[in-house]
Design goal:
By secondary structure, the protein is of the alpha+beta class. The chain is built from 4 helices and 5 strands; from the N terminus they run H-E-E-E-E-E-H-H-H. The protein has a 5-stranded antiparallel sheet. The termini are far apart.
Length: 156
Amino acid sequence: MGEVDRVDGIIFILILLVLMVPLFLTTRRQKKAMRQTQETQANLAVGDEVMTTSGMHAEVTDLQETTVDLEIAPGVVTRWERIAIRERLTGDTAEDADAGYDRSDEDDVQDGFTEDDIEGFSADDLTPEDFAGDAQDDGARRGSDRGRRDGDAAES
């Protein structure tokens, strides 16, 4: 009976480890992210481009102890709490430029289309024939379903 208790104890400890290790790792990751965000908020400078926690992009125009003034459009300045700053975009852009990365290329390809493919395109230029292939495929599928249903009814 003592050996069974020892095995149960080992299994209990293993289950605790399996549950506690991911919890510990997740907590560490969250603390690291929080520390990095706090450093970003503490090291803001006038002229930095930032993104707020709500996803708004703006430029820092003035700094106070707990608040920051952000220019969200030319001539439109709003005051935010520093904790609302999620990340600084200025530093990321400079690092990307050093690496030879051009952010302007990001918008060039969307869903497999380049600006050259899209330039001059208008949905008004589409005709019913542009969709005819899709409609025929749908009709063929529906027709084949009807045939099966009609055949099933005739057999009954």
